[in-house]
Amino acid sequence: MSEISEATVHESAGQALALPPTTVRPHTTILPRYQTDANGDIQFLHEPQERFAEVEVLGEGASGMVVLAKDQDIQRSVALKKLKHAHEASESLIRFIKEVQITGTLDHPNITALHDVGLTADGSYFFVMKYQSGSTLRDLIDKLVQGDRETHEKFPFSVRINIFLKIAQAVQFAHSKGIIHRDLKPENIVVGDFGEVTVMDWGIAKVIRTQKGSVTEEDEPCAHLENLPPECQDVDAFATQENTLIGTLAYMAPEQARGAIQELSEATDIYSLSAILYEWLTLHHYLERHTENNMTLWWGILNEKPPSPHFLSDPSGIQGNPPAEYLHFVVRGLAKKPEDRFSSLSAMIGQLQSLQEGNIPIRCPITFSRRLGSQLQQTANQHMILTLVGLALLAAFSMIGFLQVIVWLL
Predict the structure, then answer these.
(1) In angstroms, rounded to a whole number, what is the distance separating the alpha carbons of residues 305 and 335?
(2) Distance between CA 97 and CA 93 in Å, rounded?
(3) Architecture label for domain 135-357
(4) Average per-residue pLDDT in the chain?
(5) CB 3.0–4.6 Å: which of 60, 179, 250, 291 could bond 65 by disulfide?
(6) Which residues share a beta bridge with 44?
C-alpha cells in the first residue's frame, strides 16, 4: 500500500495539483461477447465498451456521489464512488485518496470491500466497491419507530444485539490497524436481507497510529472550540460534515465536538457506537430533545447526560422495554470522559457477550431478577436430573399442602 506523500499529491497554495493523467484510458470491458451463427459455429465479438454501466445514483454529497453500476465483464452489481470533477483539484482529492488507501487495508467481512480504482470516460476518479443490498440501520430504526410489525418480528432485541456485535467487531478490526472511523451512524451501516452487516463510508476515517505497511497521513490542525462554528449551526445534524467539525454532529463524542483532533482515539468510536446502540434499542436518539437545534445539541454532547433509557416511552407501541442489563451497559459507553468509557472495543464486546450468556451484573431489582432467572436456568441445564427431582419434590409438597388445606376446611 503506497503512502500519501509529496510523490503522490503535490500541494500549492492549499490546492492539490493532481489532475488525471491524459494517457490513462478509462475502464473498458476485457472479455469478448460470443454468439453462435447459422452453421452452429461460435463467433467471438471483441467490442470493448465502458466496463461499468451506471444504473442509478444511490447517494450524493458535496464532493462526490455513490452510483449503482453493472460490471459488464463479471455481470454483477457494484457500487462506484465517484469524485465530482470540480473537486479533483482540491482537498477533496486528498480525502478521496485516503479513503481508497484506508478502505483497502480493511479486509474484513463486515467492512466495505474495495475492488478497484479507475477513471470515467470524462476523466473523473472513482473506486469500485461491493454493492451491499439491504436496509440501512436508519431505515430499520424508522420502521421500528413506526410500529412495523414485520420489522419488529424480524429484529427482536436478541437479533439487534447480534447485529450490533458485528458492527463493533468490524470497527474493532479497524482499530487493530490503527484506524478510527469518525463517522459511525445508522446511515453508514447496512443490514442485508440475509443478516449481512456492513460498515460503510470510511471517507473521513483517521489513522491514529501507524504500523509497518499501513497508510500514513499528515496531522490535522487541533483547535478546541469555545462555541459551535457558524458554518455548522444551520446544517443537518445527521449529515456528515467536512469543514471545521469533521463528522456527524448527532453522533459525535465530546472530544470530537470540541474539535480536539489530537485527542481522538478508539474511545471516540466507542462513544458513537454507544449512541447508535442506545437508539437501536430504545428507538430514541440519546439527546433527542436537542436534535432540532445544533447549538443546544452541541452543548448537550459536551455537558448533558442522556436521559435514563429505563424510563423512556415505547414510540412503536409494540416492543416494550429493552432488557435492563443492556440499558445499563450502553450508558457506560456514553460517558463524557474517554477514560470513563470501555477501555477498548475488545472490552466492550467481551462484556456484551457476557451479558448474552446470562452473566448479568446486579444494578437494580430488574437485573437482580434476571440474574437469578439466568442462574436457575444454567443450573437446570447443567444438572437436569437434580432439577427434575427438585421439581418433583416441590410438586409433592405442594399437593400435600393443598390436601392439608382441604382437611382443615372440612
Answers:
(1) 8
(2) 6
(3) Orthogonal Bundle (1.10)
(4) 83
(5) 60
(6) 34
Give the separation between CA 96 and CA 84, rounded to whole angstroms: 11
- Residues 1-51: pLDDT tens digits? 334 333 333 333 344 445 555 555 567 888 888 888 888 889 888 888 889
Tens digits of residue pLDDT in 236-284:
777 777 666 788 999 999 999 998 888 999 999 999 999 999 999 999 9
Which helix H or strand E contains 283, and what residues bound it?
A: none
What size, in residues, is the chain? 410
Q: How far is residue 97's CA from residue 20's CA, in Å, rounded to a whole number?
A: 13
pTM of the model: 0.80
Residues of the chain with pLDDT under 50: 1-17, 368, 371-372, 374
Cell digits of residue 191: 443490514
Task: Name the residue among 54, 199, 47 with its Cα closest to residue 118.
Answer: 54
- Angle between helix axes 157-176 and 266-282 (nearest 10 degrees) is 170
- Angstrom distances, CA of residue 2 to CA of 6, 8, 21, 100, 101: 12, 9, 18, 11, 8
Domain ranges of the chain: 11-130, 135-357, 368-409
Amino acid at 344: S
Per-residue DSSP letters for 231-299?
GGTSS-TTS-EESSSEE-GGG--HHHHTT-GGG--HHHHHHHHHHHHHHHHHSS-TTGGGTT-HHHHHH
- CATH fold of the domain at 11-130: Phosphorylase Kinase; domain 1 (3.30.200)
Residues 6+ apart with CB under 8 A from 312: 282, 284
